[in-house]
Amino acid sequence: MTVAIIDYGSGNLRSAAKAFEHVGTAPVAVTADPDTVARADRVVLPGVGAFADCRRGLYALDGMVEALIDAVIAKARPFLGICVGMQLMATRGLEHGSHDGFNWIEGSVRAIDPTDKTLKIPHMGWNDLTLRGAHPLLAGLAPSPHMYFVHSYHLAAADEAHVLATVDYSGAVTAVVGRDNLVGTQFHPEKSQAMGLRLIENFLNWNP
C-alpha cells in the first residue's frame, strides 16, 4: 500500500507525513506528481489558508486535479481531506467570493457564526468532538475525542447524513464529513496527539 500526500504549496506536509509514517508501515510520498497520486492506494489532501488560494494552488499543478478525480472518484481509492483539503470537497466555498469546489460533499463552506459573539474567530485550539454515529474512521476513539482546530469557515453540508461529527463553538460546527470512500476532517489529526493518530491509523486500515 502507498499513501500520497498532495503537495500544492499549502499544508503542514512534513508533520502530516510524519504522523502517517508513525502509525503505519506503508510508504508515504509527499508529492506534486500527478502520476504518483494516480498510482497511490490512499490519497490525502491537506490545506491551510483561504479556500480560493488552496484551490488555485491545486489547479496550478498540471494534471493534478484530473489524477485526483480519477483516483478518488473513478477508482474509489480512500481519500482524506484535512482542514481546507476537506473544505475543497464541498460544492462551493464562500470565503472572499464564491468559488467552486469538487462537489463531492454537497454543501457550502461558510463562515463560522457562533451565537456567542464574544468568541474569537478563528476557532483555534483544542475542542471535543460530538460523534454522530459509527464510522470506521472514528472506531476506537474516545466518546468525546479532543482534536486541534484552526479555522474560520466550516462545511455546511446539504445532507446531514454526510456529517459524521461536529464540535460545539456556541453552535454546532462541522468537524468530520464522509460518504462512500471519502472522508474529511476540519481539525488537524496530525496535530491532535493520540486521538489524531488513531484516526489516521483507522484511515490507513479502512477498506470502503
Give the tags.
alpha/beta; Rossmann fold
Gist of the model:
By secondary structure, the chain is α/β, with parallel strands linked by helices. The chain has six helices and 13 strands. The strands form two sheets. Strands 2-1-3-4-13-12-11-8-9 form a nine-stranded mixed beta sheet, with helices on both faces. A four-stranded mixed beta sheet has the order 6-5-7-10, with helices on one face.
Explain what you see.
It is a single chain. This protein has a single domain, classed as 3-Layer(aba) Sandwich (Rossmann fold), CATH 3.40.50.880. The chain has helices at about 15-25, 35-40, 50-60, 65-75, 85, 195-205, and strands at about 5, 30, 40-45, 80, 90-95, 100, 105-110, 125-130, 145-150, 155, 165-170, 170-180, 180-185. A nine-stranded mixed beta sheet has the order 2-1-3-4-13-12-11-8-9, sandwiched between helices. The mean pLDDT is about 95. The chain has six helices and 13 strands. Helix 1 packs across helix 6. Strand 12 and strand 13 form a beta hairpin. By secondary structure, it is α/β, with parallel strands linked by helices.
